[in-house]
Give the backbone structure.
Amino acid sequence: MTQRTLAGLVALPLVVALIVIAWVVPLPYTIYSPGPTVNVLGKFDGKDIVQVKGHESYRDKGQLRMTTVSETTREARLGLWTLLGAWMSETEAVYPREVAYPDQGTVEDDREAGQVQMASAQDAAIAAALTKLGEDVDEVSVAEVSKDAPAEGKLKAEDVVTKVGDKAVDTPEEVVAEVQKVKPGDTIELTVERKGKTLTQTIKTGEKDGKAFIGVSLGATYEFPYDVKITLDPAIGGPSAGLMMALSVYDTLTKGPLTGEQKIAGTGTIDGDGNVGPIGGIQQKIPGAASDGAKLFLVPAGNCQDVEGAENGDMRLTRVENLDDAIKAIETWTEDPNAKLPTCGSTK
């Protein structure tokens, strides 16, 4: 037996052991797969997902399907074999765990954070839909009053600011702009709603960076003229269904089927003004929607660089920047499925 052969025989168990370890030992990665889609115009647990009280609602046979991603949890133990299978898949993706879960936490923390994001997204979706319908829903609330600030003792958390002086205000930016119109040290009147009462508070402004200030943190909130509620499976979290929820509320509150009784899917965050934002996992959401029979998919403009090569089959992809774009695209497509629509470059 030669020395080379002997060395090979000695090394063989080590090589085998390394291969076994590579297949078995968990690696710090996460897998994204197409998740289920949900018709937001449909029902959950036997009840309409979009429920309305105090305003007439309209139901039709079309579908507006929100899309999801199935994501392995931060505690999932994934071996090389599993990761290679996902990497070779046309519809799955592999990401470093720190990309999917940049913060420390637990699976329960992730679930709770997703539910908070979903609740906020639902409020924004309802606000966007009602704003589109001509309702005034914006409010400005006091989130916090700084200690020893000019507003201390005058304003309280959860006060809703309706006027600064004689100027009606709807956004935190408008409040700040009106306050900064006066000179530091001047007094200013704020009209607020507090527990059903209207109060006018006179505040002597302070000075910060050469400008007048009153020392409060403000947040945008909404006051809806009638009750609109969105009820989804609590296992679904995150903000990415905002656009499809807004469209579903809009469709429910308007006569006639927005969808032309067709299956339409999409994704994207939304704010109260109807602006659509990008999301993660769109390469998995598109094939998920196509496999559930959708024929039109709404792509946030901010995700256009991410859709190249997505498995969309014969489902058309159209780019949207806001709620108005989405409604126009749907109406155009339902009238003529071959009509020209805004696209993401070479996507069809």
In short: Residues 6-10 have pLDDT under 50 and may be disordered. The chain has two domains: 34-71+110-135+225-335, 138-222. The CA atoms of residues 31 and 72 lie 6 Å apart.
